[in-house]
Structure formats: C-alpha cells, structure tokens
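BUG: 3D viewer hangs when loading the predicted structure for this chain

Environment: internal workstation, default settings.
Expected: structure renders.
Actual: progress bar stalls at 90%.

Input used:
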Amino acid sequence: MESQSDTKKSLNLRSIGGKMVKPLKILLINTKSKAGFILLVSLIIFGILGQFFTPYNPNRYEFTGGLGPSYAHLLGTTIYGQDVFSQLFYGAAPTLMVGFAVGIIGTSISIIVGISAGFASERVNAFITGLINIFLIIPGVLLIMLFGSFFLGIHQSLGYLPTILILIITGWAFGARTFRSITLSIAKRDFILSSVLIGESRLSIIFRQIIRAIFPVIISNFFFTAMYGTMGLTFVEYLGVGNLLQINWGTMLYWAINNEAYLTGMWWWILPPSFMISILMFSFILLNFGMDEIGNPSLRRFDSKKSKKNKKINDDLNVNTEN
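Structure tokens produced before the viewer hung:
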C-alpha cells in the first residue's frame, strides 16, 4: 500500500509540475514566440548588466564630439562628447522599467475593473462600464502635454513616477473593456452557474475559474500595455516634457533629433535607440503568437512523443489504482 501511495504522490507531483511548466513549453514550441522570448530575456539581461558595466560614464562630457564608431567607442560619441554605447547600455533598464511597470499595474487594474463589471449586478456593471468609457476617451497625448507643461512651468521635470502614473491612467481602460466582455460571456457558462448554485464565493470563482480561463488574454494584454508604456515614455521624452537629464532610449532620441543627427550624418546616435525600441516591440508581438496558441488548443502542433508519454503515465496510474 505504501508503494502505491508513493507512486500516486509522485504522479500527482509530476502532474502539478507539468501544469505549471506547460504554458512555457507551449510558448516555446512556436518558433515565433520562442524568438520573442529569447529577444525579451536578452534585453532584460542587457538592461541589468547596463547598470553596472558601462564602458564609460554615460553622463560625462569627456570625449571629442561627433566621433564615429571605433574600437574605443563602439557606437561613436554624441555631439556633446558622450559615449553613445554607454548611454544605450545604461538607458535600457529605465526604458524597460517604465514599460513593465505600466504593463503590470495597468493590466492589474484592467483585471480588477473588467472582471468586477462582468461578474457584478446590472447596476454595478452599468456604473463601471460608464467609468471605463470615460477613461477610454481621455486623450493620453494631451494629458501628458498638460502635465509636462505644468512641471516645466514650476521649473520641475516630469520624472519616471509621474510618467508611469499618467500612462497607467490612460492605458488601463481598453484592457478592462476586453476583460468585461469576456467575463460576461464566461459567467453564463454551465460550470460557473453550477459553482454559484453550490454556494462557492464570487471571489473563489473569479480566482479559480475566470482568471484561469482568460489567462492567455491577460498575458496578451500585458504585452500590449507594456508596449504602450514604452512608446509613451519615448513620446514624452521626444516632446521634451520629460526629465531630459535622465538617460533612457527616449532621451537619446530627443537629443539626437534635436541636434539634427539625421542631417549631419551621425547615424550612430539616432539608429541604435530606434533599433532597440523596435526590437523590444517586436519581441512583444512575437510572444503574442504563443499566447494565441495557449488560448486556442486547435492552433497547437501535435506532438506524438508527448502524447505517448502522457498515455503511459495515465496507464501506470490506472494499473496502480486497480492493484
């Protein structure tokens, strides 16, 4: 009996572990999503290392301005004598930080508001829907310009925290509307109605069933919201209403464009940050292919080896149960 019990426990642990690893495996089966995952992880590592191992101080004006790429300066220098590669290396982390912060917080608000609206009474649903519609029509660009102008008027700069808050305020409503629509549909299904009839709490149903069912959509929404956060930061700096003394890919573009690097032939100043931002956006888009595959099993490629392995585990469990 002990051996049977141990076998069942090991099989259960293997099954639990498989459920936790399964989404990542499915994600990496798709060639495009695998490429996106590798790109995103590489950018994160690049950003972390950039906080400690920059070749030169990215803020110091210590070299001849306008130098082209060389062994000493891989991406040349700015017109002010700063090393471009050091700025690109150091500025990766703040850019990623803003994008991920907007993505995580904005998606969290979208989940709370959207699911609450879809799984609430008609009055609450109508109220929350009206709130979502109000935030949907708030022009993010205008709000950023107004706050940026206000900060400039009091001789301050729009730092990372105010920028993140503005982008969250203008970026959560679209996801909330999506989650509300999906929740309204799921809430009418038999397994949800059965849970309500047997007395399961709404909070338990939301976390154990609804969030579980819409998890791929949540991840996709995170990617798009993070994209909005990254592009929002770039736009804030491009307008010149942010803190231009901060080093990130947005301020690099501002100074390069402001000094007409595209006209003076200093391509090494304007192309690297543009390329890195494009790579970040591209990685998010590629990862969404994997999310589609997780959310829609019919899109997954059939794996005969995996099917045989799962069949063998189930057969072992049945044999041990009969004994």
